[in-house]
Amino acid sequence: MTGYPVNMDIKPEVQAFFDEATNTISYIVKDPKSNACAVIDSVMDIDYAAGRITFDHADLLIRQIEAQGLTVEWIIETHVHADHLSAAPYIQEKLGGKIGVGAKITVVQDVFGKVFNEGTEFQRDGSQFDALFEDGDTYMIGNMQAFAIYTPGHTPACMVHVMGDAAFVGDTLFMPDGGSARCDFPGGSAETLYDSIMKVLALPDETRLFMCHDYGPGGREILWETTVAEERAKNIHVGQGKTKEEFVKFRTERDAQLSMPKLIIPSLQVNMRAGEVPTDKDGNPMLKVPVNGL
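^ thats the sequence. predicted structure below, dont judge the formating
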């Protein structure tokens, strides 16, 4: 067993929302015995070329939550995303709830605070978030206990959040035919990611795993749900007993061929602030572009 407080008898209701612009899947997760829910990995829309931010995707989640009479208790970020902007503060303003992220957000803030030359006014202690999770920390969504597993490797602050028989894996894993996430961002490590994936695959076989991204490899339809057993058997990067050495060799070679995510520059600036857009000295929303900084 894993040593984590797994309860497979609790089966939360999970609603998925796919954002085509960023291939991100956001979730509303409802406690089966109350109207309490959590929002996982929300998306704020951006037209980067025009410098325009909108909230169509977040409004879709908000309408669903309101229509079902749910109460938002948590707005969870599985990690500091590099490919989409979080809508956490927008949803919190509309519906309440606490914004939570892994405690190692402070490492990300320190690294990218320097990249973006943020200065002393940018707090690097995670205080922009309402809760900072350590490995094994538990929290409640209505009557349902949830817990966080520390899964670094893609980034230093990645966490998998387990709610009953459902686990929200962020970028730690993709669908079996998608494999795993890149490890070449600052603070990433293929060796560490392999160990993190093994922690996830130590959960019970029937644990439902929900992805943060899917890209439809080979032109298949977009999917986001699988199981621990299926990942262990079929994942193209770690399944069928692939060794750490095999994984690290493949992952390192693959990452060297990848270009940067299209939205990495705005995403990091916003997401390390819990979804708030930075401002200039006059209080106007403003993003920076570091030259040769990434």
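The chain has a mean pLDDT of 96.
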